[in-house]
Design goal:
This protein has 114 residues and is mainly β. Strands 1-4-5-9-8-7-6 form a 7-stranded antiparallel beta sheet, with no helix packed on it. Strand 4 and strand 5 form a beta hairpin. The chain is globular and about 40 Å long.
Length: 114
């Protein structure tokens, strides 16, 4: 699509994602995905996410520019955040850098950047 540009860059700061006092991720290796006029999205390496707090969701979506996305919900004690993260397990070649990364809905975490 003309005018639809995707650019990926390293997040220069350490980023922590919290739900209450619980650290869900802590990374210095995040990526920032800029896509047209959409909000910039943070992508966190799976290795830096506490995957023991996440459970796969049934939700799936498709992006013609990035590929098929899978979702994960957060389960923490009696709290559930449905479909809090998504990721592209086999992204299209133009965005291969986000393979192995998850993107959180940042407005549903208390994000900390240092």
């Amino acid at each position: 699509m003309p005018g639809h540009r995707i650019r990926i860059e390293d997040e220069p700061r350490r980023v922590r994602g919290l739900v209450g006092d619980q650290v869900v991720f802590d990374t210095s290796r995040a990526k920032l995905l800029h896509e047209g006029r959409l909000p910039v999205r943070l992508y966190v390496p799976r290795e830096d996410v506490d995957m023991s707090l996440l459970v796969p969701s049934e939700k799936r979506t498709h992006c013609p520019f990035k590929g098929d996305a899978s979702y994960w919900s957060l389960r923490l004690d009696d709290r559930v955040e449905e479909d809090l993260f998504w990721g592209y397990e086999d992204p299209k070649p133009g965005v291969a850098e986000i393979a192995g990364h998850l993107a959180p809905y940042a407005d549903r975490l208390t994000l900390s950047r240092e």
